[in-house]
Give the backbone structure.
Amino acid sequence: MISAVTEAGQQAAESRMLDTFDIGVPTGGYTYDPAANGGTGGDVETITPLFATVGRVKVGGGLAAREAEAGGRTVVTVVRELHIPVGSAAVPVGAVAVCTAVHPTSDPTLLNARLRLAGPAPGSQTTARRLEVEEVLT
């Protein structure tokens, strides 16, 4: 009974994963991307692709913004959850998920967002693989 209910929950969760992400690991290098910074261009971290997947970005319990000092300036990051199918490959900490397509029901500013995996949140009888991710905003 539990297996059937969990499987139905997984199918329902996947039906809500309407955006597409490329997931990869940072190479340590940077390249210029004209789409970066809202289309004004800039250097972005290069990644070695691992896999592409559907997903859903969720903000849990309110927007969790964090401020920190880096290189003499304030850096703001936002913590969210990226939900991907349960059967997806494991994603290492530090990997980057780049949103490559958004559904019409999603916030269009999610397109090209670069989300860094802060930690996985594995569980039992889950409907999605939940990944804690951070996006650097400034």
